[in-house]
Design goal:
Distance between the termini: 36 Å
Largest sheet: none
Radius of gyration: 20 Å
Number of strands: 0
Number of helices: 6
Number of domains: 1
Strand content: under 5%
Order of helices and strands: HHHHHH
Length: 172
Amino acid sequence: MRKIVTISLALGLTSTLMAKPNIPNTEMKARIAEMAGKKGMFALHEVFPKDYFLIGKNLPFIVSLTLHHPESSTLELTKEQIGKIQEIKGNTVPVVIKSAKEIKALELALSDKIVKGAKATELGAEVDKIATLKAALTKKHLKCIESVREILTEKQRKILLSYAGKKMEHKK
């Protein structure tokens, strides 16, 4: 019995170590960084477009997790599933980028105004507009999560959750 457990653990660790992304995303990262443009003077670290969602840190970016995470090959997605997820990505990413750029521009303009002496009471409408746009973008994100989740099997969803919290560092 101990041999079976040991062999199972060894196989599990080996398959995890050999896992790789379904689709590498190095090109996409470079394009998004270019689209993001210059970061604001008070933004030490910008994660574009994630920083422009209302909830940017506590929701999964499920397209990346299914296609680009180093362990995504463990999902054993079919070509049909990959195609459907890529279609969702193709429809979602341009909208997200456009919205994030708009929100960023509004935030930078607001930042410029307050630094130059505008009163907080004068900026309420702009803050409300940014909040509304961030909420709308987050609702699109929720729809994207739901759409991808519907493509995955129960087993694939469990596997995805097992590696979802792990940092996306690609092994070289």
